[in-house]
């Protein structure tokens, strides 16, 4: 029988991080893969971003710019997944996967929600949209990372960030 998970002083379950480091067989395969599953609780975002960032940049010199871009893009993607994808449903989780390559980091954030069509989200900086709050996170993500892709269902975002 597996022991019951220990709660932190605030009564929350700790986040679980799985790191698998493997030899680099070829340039197309990731050198390491980091996975994290977190509850649909917005208060977990800061800790999740900190954990993933620490493992993504471990042992690799990173500029302040790369660290900032990784942290903000990941925080926005997690907030969208928790608030919009899973609607803060405590029975649903968000999966974060980071694939670490020599020159890039590929982050995927997947929620358990119904998904959406990212093409339907209008540009957040159009004058008629400046007062609206919807779409700003996606706008920031697109400006901060080098490539953004969504799965067909629209419940998973894949962001690629160069380590330059």
Structure, briefly:
With 164 residues, the protein is α+β, with helices and mostly antiparallel strands. It has helices spanning 45-56, 64-85, 136-144; strands at residues 16-21, 32-39, 93-100, 104-110, 147-150, 156-162.
Please characterize this protein's 3D structure:
The chain is an alpha+beta fold. The chain has a single domain (31-162), classed as Histidine kinase-like ATPase, C-terminal domain (Heat Shock Protein 90). 26% of the residues lie in helices and 24% in strands. It contains 3 helices and 6 strands. The protein has a 6-stranded antiparallel sheet with strand order 1-2-3-4-6-5, covered by helices on one side. Strand 5 and strand 6 (156-162) form a beta hairpin. Helix 1 (45-56) runs antiparallel to helix 2 and helix 2 (64-85) runs antiparallel to helix 3 (136-144). The chain is globular and about 45 Å long. It starts with 15 loop residues before the first strand and ends with a strand. Residues 1-7 have low confidence and may be disordered.
User: Which percent range describes the beta-strand content?
Assistant: 15-25%
Structural domain count: 1
CATH class: Alpha Beta
N- to C-terminal separation? 47 Å
CATH fold label: Heat Shock Protein 90
Percent of residues in helices: 25-40%
Question: Count the strands?
Answer: 6
Instruction: Tell me the major beta sheet.
Output: 6 strands, antiparallel
The 3D shape can be described as globular
Fourth-level CATH superfamily: Histidine kinase-like ATPase, C-terminal domain
Helix/strand class = alpha+beta
CATH level-two architecture: 2-Layer Sandwich
What value does the average pLDDT take?
A: 85
How would you classify the quaternary structure? Answer: single chain
Total count of helical runs of at least 4 residues: 3
State the strand order across the main sheet: 1-2-3-4-6-5
């Amino acid at each position: 029988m597996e022991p019951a998970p220990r709660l932190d002083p605030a009564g929350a379950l700790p986040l679980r991080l799985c790191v698998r480091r493997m030899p680099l067989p070829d340039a197309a395969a990731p050198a390491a893969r980091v996975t994290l599953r977190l509850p649909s609780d917005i208060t977990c975002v800061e800790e999740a971003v900190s954990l993933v960032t620490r493992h993504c940049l471990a042992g690799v010199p990173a500029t302040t710019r790369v660290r900032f871009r990784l942290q903000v893009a990941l925080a926005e993607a997690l907030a969208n997944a928790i608030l919009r994808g899973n609607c803060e449903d405590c029975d649903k989780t968000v999966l974060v996967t980071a694939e670490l390559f020599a020159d890039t980091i590929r982050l995927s954030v997947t929620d358990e929600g119904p998904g959406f069509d990212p093409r339907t989200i209008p540009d957040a900086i159009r004058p008629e949209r400046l007062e609206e709050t919807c779409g700003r996170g996606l706008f920031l993500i697109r400006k901060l990372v080098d490539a953004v892709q969504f799965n067909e269902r629209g419940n998973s975002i894949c962001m690629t960030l160069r380590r330059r």
